[in-house]
Amino acid sequence: MSSTKPELVSFKLCPFVQRSVIVLKEKGVDYDITYINLKEPPPWFKEISPLGKVPLLKVGETVLFESAVIMEYLDEVNPPSLHPTDPLQKAQNRAWNEFASTLLESQFKMVIGAKDEEGCNAAEQELKSKLALLEPMIQGSFFNGEDFSLTDAAYAPFFMRLNLLEQWHPMGLITDLPKVSAWSTNLLERATVKDSVVEGFDELYRGFIGGMGGFGAKRFGQ
Ligand SMILES: N[C@@H](CCC(=O)N[C@@H](CS)C(=O)NCC(=O)O)C(=O)O
Q: Contacts by 55-60 with C-beta closer than 8 Å and gap 24+?
């Protein structure tokens, strides 16, 4: 296990940060977390974040950015690995982790970015098409079968948000995808996933959507 206590720089609602939190909790790693307001980031954040984005992981004097890289680092220094051992399967998982990021982008577009109903519906259809591609990939309770992997950590934040959005405005985006539906349920029941967000997350997320002024505010916000 790594000896330096890592510090995660976070925004309370960021799904990309949440991935790192899940991995830290899966590994039982002691860590610090610092929350910033992304609308008014502190000067020290601007100095150390090359892209002005969270997550950052500070390890001693070194600052890591990009959630996929941070997950990989945390996995490597805190064995046993959450990756499958077979190199081809590992590479395939990494590819699907990237795909998870595009799902998050489409979700963001649907909820925050779309300015009108047309844009919101288009993002919803984009999500539906992408989700269908996942159905044949799911191997069991989790992405690779019965063992929780980094890929499960990469997707859990997306499904946590989708579950809430479906409660606020039913779309049935995974209703016809039995494997994806079961996977989502299993992810959301996992303790490390449940514990990976701040208290009051649901209402915080809804209030954030409501305050962002996109069409999603009407559809999903308060
Ligand atoms: N590709 C990045 C995406 C991170 C990202 O988009 N973070 C958002 C918050 S969820 C952010 O910091 N946005 C601030 C901005 O774009 O100005 C990753 O995987 O870490």
A: 55/8, 55/9, 55/10, 55/14, 55/16, 55/17, 55/19, 55/20, 56/8, 56/9, 57/6, 57/7, 57/8, 57/9, 57/20, 58/6, 58/7, 58/8, 58/9, 59/2, 59/4, 59/6, 60/4
Q: Are residues 139 and 209 in the same domain?
A: yes
Read off the pLDDT of residues 183-199 as tens digits, 9 standing for 90 and up.
999 999 999 999 999 99
37 lies in the same domain as 117: no
**Which residue of the set 9, 14, 111, 173 is catalytic?**
14
Q: Note the pLDDT tens digit of each residue in 4-36.
A: 899 999 999 999 999 999 999 999 999 999 999
Domain count, the chain: 2
221 pLDDT tier (thresholds 50, 70, 90) = confident
CA-nearest residue for atom 1, ligand 1, is: 66
CATH code, 178: 1.20.1050.10
What is the domain extent for residue 141?
Answer: 87-219
Residue nearest to atom 9 of ligand 1 (CA): 14
Q: Please tell me the predicted confidence (pLDDT) of residue 120.
A: 97
Q: What is the pTM of this model?
A: 0.97
Distance 16 CA to ligand 1 centre (A): 7
Q: Would you say the CB of residue 52 lies under 6 angstroms from ligand 1? A: yes
Residue 82 lies in a domain: no
Catalytic (active site) residue 120: no
Query: Of 14, 53, 65, 155, which is best to mutate to test ligand 1, by the most ligand atoms within 8 angstroms of its C-beta?
Result: 53
Residue 1 lies in a domain: no
